[in-house]
Amino acid sequence: MSISRRKFLGWVSAAGIGSVVGKSALAAGNKHFDGYQESLGVLHDISLCVGCRSCEAACCKVNELPVPDKPFTDTHVLDEERRTTAKAYTVVNKYGVTGKIGPSFRKIQCNHCAEPACSSACFVKAFKKTKTGAVTYDASVCVGCRYCMIACPFEIPAYEYNESFTPRVMKCTMCHPRILKGQLPGCVEVCPMEALTFGKRADLLNIARERIRKYPRKYIDHIYGETEMGGTSWLYLSNVPFSDIGMREDLGVTPAPELTSGALSVVPLVAGLWPVFLMGIYAISKRKEIIFKEELDEAAHSRTKEDI
Amino acid sequence: MSDKAAIDLKTWFTPFNVVSGTIIIIGIVLSILRFTFGLGAVTNLSDDNPWGLWIGFDLLVGVALAAGGYVTSAAVYLFGMKKFHSAVRPAVLTGFLGYSLVVFALTYDVGRPLRLPYPFIMQQGTTSLLFEVAGCVALYLTVLFLEFLPAPLEWLGFKKVRELAVKLTLALTVLGVVLSTLHQSSLGALFLIAPSKLHPLWYSSYLPVFFFVSSIIAGLSMVIYESALSHHYFADKMDTAHLQESEGVTLGFGKAASLILAGYFTIKVMGIAGGDHWHLLGTPYGLWFLVELIGFVALPSFLYAVGVRNKDVTLIKWTAAWTVLGIVINRLNVSLIAFNWHLPSARRYFPHWMEIATSVFIVTIGIVVFRFIVTRMPIFYEHPEYKD
Amino acid sequence: MKKERYLFRWAGILTISIIALSGTGIYGLSKVLKVSSQPRADVIKIDNMIAFGKLEKAPVEFLHEAHTEALAKKNKDCAACHLTQNKRMFPKFKRIADTDRIEVMDIYHKGCISCHGEMKVAKEKAGPVECEGCHREKIQHLTSRQPIGFDKSLHFRHSEAQENKCELCHHEYDEKAKKLFYVKGKEGTCRYCHKEKTKDNLMSMGLSSHISCIDCHQKNISKSLTTGPVTCSGCHDPAVQQKIKKITPIPRMDRKQPDIVMLKNAPKGIGTDTENTNKMAFVPFDHKAHENYNDTCRVCHHESLKQCNECHALAGMKEGNMVNLEKAMHQVDSTRSCQGCHEAKQNDKNCAGCHVFMGKERVKEDTSCLKCHSAPGVEKKKASNPDDEKTLVKTMLQSRNLVPGTYPENNIPEKVVIKKLSKEYEAVDFPHRKVVNTLVKNIKDNKLAGYFHSQKGSICKGCHHNSPVSTNPPHCGNCHGKPFDAKNPSKPGIIGAYHQQCMGCHKEMGIEKPAGCTECHKKKKN
Q: C-chain residues within 8 Å CB-CB of B325?
């Protein structure tokens, strides 16, 4: 089920992956950034997901993650809500929604933000928003401060706490290496319902809009990820309210880097103004001291005069 | 012979040595555990709660309470309050030790401590506030070291080098204030990136301002509190100048703290008004917020004022201790208690006893080193050979 | 020094009380709001004072039946609390009109407190006399009160009991004489005039129904006749409502309405229409049949019992809220339009399996228009007189084929083996004929579905979509290949297509089996 070579080359050249290496700080910077227009992404149609966990199994396999004790075919695992961990880049959760027959399922993984919080927060630039759309992680520079995990609004990155000497932050890579090789992300390739659609983010948005138009009674009229936190490469369509399936609708549309850009912009101000200001105060207090001394001297002098 | 040994034993096994010794032995064992089996072995940290007590207390509280250094040296050297001169050295020493311990504690918390210099030597993540914090803390530690340098140099008798170090005082003080302003506020700004995780009563775009202003309060209170303790334990090490000036320092700093606490209270209220979060005050988190705001900001401001007005040093000293506790609560609120408030209780964080023990261990190291230095170096007194 | 110690003490008290306060606050909030006992139908929220501005105190929860029972024990009847006007009991408490704030407030306070007080003095179990006893911030009783609809069954039972004397309830209003009068043949729904709220002297639906229904029932009781309920729960308790006798089949409500209608544009003189502007074939409509599908006339005749085209002309009219005839008949999101109601029927379990996959298309197929617009051309119609038209409509309706069409059994393959999925799994034995027969059986008795699926093969289109109807349709794999066709991004690949179609349909139709992967295709052994 791999995509044709030619089509893939089309994607690759469109996304300008040839120039992927290099300056891409823009995605985490504090300037206005519309996202890489040609970036790739995945559309998750929640109404189609049946909770078979094939994506989890495929993810485990292609990323060579440890195989869990309970097999992936065991759907009882879905009975409790889970999150991504260092051993699972993606998990499917089951939600009962009132007024709807049968459960709803939602797949969780890194959303690959257009302007990622993790990348903005990382003080060694271990995270990069690549032009493919994937947010990648470079374990070779990571110090392990875990600020990325604090910053991520979707609570995705996990940490290898039990690794003694070389712990890493673990998260979905959107199968960046596979994408570069012309393959689909593992989860997308395996999904039997085609609840996951891979393609250019701009196209995915059009597909999603078309589905909403065509089935107005079925879908909620919102594409989750189109604007959330400034937009994400993973997009979600749902037939049930997003808040009913554990997706936060209060995240706002401000990209994460903008949240801290104000505080960062104060740095040059403080560094520039403070010394001038402080030296001024120093000069004033020094001057006061001198005047005080002079007056003291004068007073002493006049007194000695009077004494005479 | 046996008598001498007995005396030796007696001088060694003082209550202080026994307690601190025990803590340090436990600390060493825990350190070995941490550095051989990883963070998971000794902490309750999880994927939901990546920052625990070691960041909340050791880093945030540590840095705030070590603010006495820049506050005191700025008051004396820049604002010309010469009468507080005797307070500078203890404050700078506390600052230096505090920051050293912060860095020491960080080696426990980060996953790969040997890579701590990576942000400077590998790739600079300039978009990160943590980069700013790291840079400023590293520089400021150097500044504090240089500021502290005259004391050991006097002790060791290196006169010329000491002269050179003293000449740097003004530049170092300015640099210290600049760096402190930046990183004290940036510690608060660290949480600006997570509006969806921090409770709206604590989250505010003013967070950096809150952290900076409260660090001044922490610095002032810490100097007062510490001088109270030092008077109790190290009075024999103090010269007359120190003893005479001490009350003035307490009153002066108490007055400043009272005013700044009042200002801090005002901007905290502005923070609620700015976010229009009044309705949240009725919730359990709101009541806890009010405890912090009224019990640990408004109340000490008032008590400081009363103490200064009546020249009641005892009241001021107790208030200082109360204020320090308030700062601890504030930092823990922002980093742990009000953070991840949206998560169900099963996914919340409470520190493992080994995390707490490690923090106690680190604080103990600080006290032991402080004691070692003040009993040997000219901290509470002016070295007779270097009187200005 | 003394003063300072005093201040210090106060500060200490302040801190402790804050901490204690937060503690109790958390405790209090952690406790779930406790509401006493079962929900009941007689909870009346007395908030009449809101008509005079903001409420000073919380509204009062009044348990009506608790009071009637208590009064009955003392041999008191409704008159203890309710006045009579025009020989009818008035539902408001001890007054006819809400005059002014103080007066109404006094009526309540005097009426309630004096009675409670007397009972207290007599050492009887009495209601509260202090403010907070009645005006309580927290909800004390959950209400189960449910409005009652006067459905066709109830209507028939009433008209039968009253020997078809419509005038007992139905009336018109004479503006000049300020009187109610009755016109035979102009009966309509109460709600056409009586709205949600009382306006001037036009009473609200609630007030007028409580006056009329209860008064009549009460009088019947006094005459020892069998009659309807007079208590709150008698009408408003959901459980009691379930037990109300239903007539089946309900005899037709007679108001000289037509059995069959030719739906057409407005006659000359109404709106800006001229007869020649309509180019669309008229629609024969079975009015009688549709009466049975709905509970009230209001479902279609929303404002009054007029003909559609009196307000909805080809161009919008003010009377019709500028909704033109085309919209009035075709608006998909309206439950009053033909198409809106018919499309909503597609959500039924038996229909949704196929229809859920059929997207909203901007333009419908011509054949689907002709299903309704089947009358002969407009030119021919001109010549016809009303009687001819009637026979025409009748024959057209009768000639409709209402049976779902299918191919002969042997043209429907019994089993289809789906091999496309046999990489990890065995091939699927798909019971094709069984599925077709079930789908046909499900809609056999449904006239609407039958009419729209009468053509052979239209039922097949649920799965064999996007290709002409045929006994030999293309294979699924002819169109569905590999996933993510960049040129046709909304077309799933073959595996996705099968899974979406089979599982989607089963889910919509509430079919639980087969469950799990291996009930359709066995796992390959290797």
A: none
Would you state the structure tokens that stand for residue C57, as one six-digit string? Answer: 């105190």
CA distance B184 to B170: 21
Distance from the Cα of B35 to chain A's closest Cα (Å) equals 7
Give Cβ neighbours of residue A247 (< 8 Å, ≥ 6 apart): A106, A224, A236
Q: Evaluate if residue C485 carries a pLDDT over 90.
A: no
Residues 6+ apart with CB under 8 A from B1: none
Spatial separation of the C-alpha atoms in residues C250 and C256, rounded to whole Å: 17
* CA neighbor of B258 nearest in space, from B307, B219, B294: B307
Dump pLDDT digits (tens) for B240-277.
877 888 888 888 899 999 999 999 999 999 988 888 88
* CB distance A125 to A264 below 8 Å: no
Of A281, C215, C136, the residue nearest B173 (C-alpha): A281
pLDDT band at A22 (very low <50, low <70, confident <90, very high): very low
Q: Which residues in chain B touch residue A282, judged by CB atoms under 8 angstroms apart?
A: 77-78, 80, 170, 174
Tell me whether C464 touches chain A (CB under 8 Å): no
The amino acid occupying position B386 is Y
Beta bridge partners of C62: C44
| C-alpha–C-alpha distance, residues A61 and A181, integer Å | 17
Interface with A, mutate which of C500, C508, C511, C523 (most A CBs under 10 A): C500
Contact between B182 and A257 using a beta-carbon 8 Å cutoff = no
Q: Do the chains contact at C11 and B303, CB–CB below 8 Å?
A: yes
Is residue A236 within 8 A of residue A247, CB to CB? The reply is yes
Residue C497's nearest CA partner among C516, C475, C518, C515 is: C475
Please check whether residue C140 touches B, CB under 8 A.
Answer: no
Other Cβ atoms closer than 10 A to A230:
22
Residue showing tokens 């700093």: B253
Amino acid at B75: A
Distance CA B312, CA B234 (A): 22
Q: What share of chain A is helix, strand, coil (3-state, %, to 5)?
A: 40, 15, 45
Beta strands per DSSP E along C75-148: 82-85, 88-93
- How do strand A40-45 and strand A234-237 relate by DSSP bridges? parallel
**How many other C-beta atoms are found inside a 10 Å radius of the C-beta of residue B382?**
18
> Is pLDDT of A100 > 60?
yes
Closest C-alpha to A106, from A120, A123, A90, A94: A94
Residues A189, A274: Cα–Cα separation, whole Å? 57
Helix (H, G, I), strand (E, B) or coil at C485: coil
- Do B299 and C11 count as a contact with CB atoms less than 8 A apart? yes
The pair of structure tokens assigned to C106 is: 């006094």
Q: In this structure, what DSSP letter does residue C235 have?
A: H
Query: In sequence order, what E strands does chain A have?
Result: 40-45, 91-95, 104-108, 127-129, 135-137, 158-159, 169-170, 196-200, 234-237
Query: Does residue B1 register a pLDDT over 50?
Result: no
CB-based contacts of A293: which residues, under 8 Å, 6+ apart? Answer: none
Radius of gyration for chain A, computed over Cα atoms and rounded to the nearest angstrom: 28
Q: How far is CA A187 from CA A17, A62, A84, A108, C162, in A?
A: 22, 9, 15, 11, 71
* CA atoms of A20 and A71, how far apart (whole Å): 37
Q: Give chain A positions within 8 Å (CB) of C510.
A: 101
* Residue C1 scores a pLDDT above 60: no
pLDDT of residue B4: 55
Helix (H) or strand (E) holding C297: none
- E strand or H helix at C260: strand C260-263
d(CA A225, CA A236) in angstroms, rounded, equals 7
